[in-house]
Design a protein that fits this description.
The protein is an alpha/beta fold and 514 residues long. The protein has three domains: 3-103, 3-Layer(aba) Sandwich (Udp-n-acetylmuramoylalanyl-d-glutamate--2,6- Diaminopimelate Ligase, Chain: A, domain 1), CATH 3.40.1390.10; 107-338, UDP-N-acetylmuramoyl-L-alanine:D-glutamate ligase (3-Layer(aba) Sandwich); 348-513, Mur ligase, C-terminal domain (Protein-Tyrosine Phosphatase, Chain A, Alpha-Beta Complex), CATH 3.90.190. 35% of the residues lie in helices and 21% in strands. Strand 3 (46-48), helix 3 and strand 4 (71-74) form a beta-alpha-beta unit.
Length: 514
């Protein structure tokens, strides 16, 4: 694409200043790539300087030019750079996204885009929608926390919502491969950092809003404003695709607020009572999953799902509502829901011949941990043992809250390390311990616990592998062990090192030994 055509994408949306006159031959040159890392620049590429968590691209403009960047986009002055087109804009992250969308041919225009946002439930809902569409022979792709996938191919995805150039490239690849529908988890980071700018959505789903990511957003108000933009900016008729539909979980306070505020698009309300368009009756939860009748406005479905618990029923309702919006027939919605019995790292059961109930779950927020523990308490009558920690370099305020929740909902809590990153694991553990101690003041040693397998209280074991093995070793038939926080992850981040670590494999090892 010629540079002159490419940069047209930013003139209509941003304030643009040209640093110096640009020869016509430069504006007519073909651009081979868009970059935001200077070390990836190839000759003739466009480099967009954005501020990241650890580095600011403005410090690397000279490096990008020395590698052959034909044009540079900045949002603050950079001195001493010549030999490249230099444009200053008011928001370089927004410019990056708009340029990437133009460069890859605005692929979301060619796709039915379903965006899911909220603190919890995004991954489960994405899997459910994917199965509904796939069973209707609809070519569907998914971009989410666990991976991105389409056409039987699965790729690693380091970010729930990739940076704009990677995201637009993925969407273009999907469209070129014949994908017609894309289900996408839209994170608050992805919205706040302009990664989804240039994407137009046909359906938006709001799950809930509970405490998370306050290390980034600073307060719940900013977190909410980011989430809300999926509906106010990307489902807006002014965006160019026409008004999309909003599926909103109204049992959540913010969901009710959002539903009352939106006036420009159709709204499908989902929840646990008959005030909603999509709601359940005759619900039952047990160890095998969930049974319910789902009222869909015009009709009713009877479903039996292998996904257990009230919070999973809420996810099912959201997915069913999306199926309704997309025109999936009722029997297709039912078949899609019932075909999903297990989701990686989400209440994932680790089988045990001895009759213990061991689950690995991604729960890393106060609300998610509470939901999972309450569900396990409801469906399994035995003792409940919770093994968990909190991630480092993330929201510190939730640590004592999660300690208190684990202590109030479990019989025994084993506090351990998660992904400590650059923080001291013991500092993180101590913050959790303070919250747990307020509720469950009996602290035990591992030796005391193994002498009395029926003990209640909490234990501190910083080594996550030892903590998981301890939880399994002291469990008895009928007991439930929840290993929370990391879910599907196959690594542990300690300092700057990324170590191989999979909760599921450690749990399987522990069960085989005991």
């Amino acid at each position: 694409m010629r540079l002159s055509l490419l940069i047209e994408a930013i003139y209509s949306e941003l304030e643009v200043e040209q640093a110096h006159p640009v020869p016509a031959d430069l504006m007519d040159m073909e651009i081979p790539a868009i970059h935001y890392r200077s070390d990836s620049v190839i000759p003739g590429g466009v480099f967009v300087a954005i501020k990241g968590q650890r580095a600011d691209g403005h410090s690397f403009v000279s490096d990008a030019v020395s590698r052959g960047a034909a044009a540079v986009i900045i949002d603050r002055d950079v001195a001493g750079v010549k030999d490249a087109v230099m444009l200053r804009v008011d928001n370089s992250r927004k410019a990056l996204a708009l340029l990437a969308a133009r460069f890859y041919g605005n692929p979301s225009d060619r796709l039915v885009m379903i965006g899911i946002t909220g603190t919890n439930g995004k991954t489960t809902i994405a899997y459910l929608i994917e199965r509904m569409l796939a069973m209707q022979k609809v070519p569907v792709g998914v971009i989410g926390t666990i991976n991105y996938r389409y056409g039987g191919r699965i790729f690693d995805n380091p970010l729930t919502t990739p940076e704009a150039p990677e995201l637009q490239c993925i969407l273009a690849e999907m469209a070129d491969a014949g994908v017609t529908h894309v289900v996408m988890e839209v994170s608050s980071h992805g919205i706040a950092l302009e990664r989804v700018r240039g994407c137009l959505f046909d359906v938006g789903v709001f799950t809930n809003l509970t405490q998370d990511h306050l290390d980034f957003h600073r307060d719940m108000g900013a977190y909410w404003e980011a989430k809300k933009q999926l509906f106010t900016a990307y489902l807006d008729p002014k965006s160019g695709k026409g008004a999309g539909s909003a599926v909103i979980h109204t049992a959540d306070k913010r969901g009710r607020e959002l539903a009352a505020e939106l006036a420009h698009c159709p709204i499908i309300r989902v929840g646990m009572d008959a005030q909603n368009t999509v709601y359940p009756t005759h619900t039952a939860f047990d160890q095998t999953g969930t049974r319910a009748n789902i009222h869909m406005g015009e009709g009713e479905l009877t479903i039996r799902s292998g996904l257990a618990g009230r919070f999973n029923l809420e996810n099912i309702l959201c997915a069913a509502a999306v199926g309704r919006v997309l025109g999936v027939p009722p029997e297709g919605i039912k078949a899609g829901i019932e075909s999903v019995s297990n989701i990686p790292g989400r209440m994932e059961r680790i089988s045990d011949a001895a009759g213990r109930h061991v689950f690995v779950d991604y729960a890393h927020t106060p609300n998610a941990l509470e939901n999972v523990l309450e569900t396990l308490r409801e469906i399994n009558p035995g003792r409940l043992i919770c093994v968990f920690g909190c991630g480092g370099d993330r929201d510190m305020d939730k640590r004592p809250k999660m300690g208190a929740i684990a202590a109030s909902k479990s019989d025994l809590v084993i506090i351990t390390s998660d992904n400590p990153r650059t923080e001291s694991p013991m500092d993180i553990i101590e913050a959790i311990r303070i919250g747990a101690h307020r509720v469950l003041p009996r602290r035990l040693s591992a030796a005391e616990l193994e002498d009395d397998l029926g003990s209640t209280g909490y234990v501190v074991e910083p080594d996550r592998e030892k903590a998981i093995l301890l939880g399994i070793r002291i469990s008895k038939p009928g007991d439930t062990v929840l290993i929370a926080g990391k879910g599907h992850e196959t690594y542990q981040i300690v300092g700057s090192r990324i170590l191989d670590f999979d909760d599921r494999k450690i749990a399987e090892q522990g069960l085989s030994l005991n």
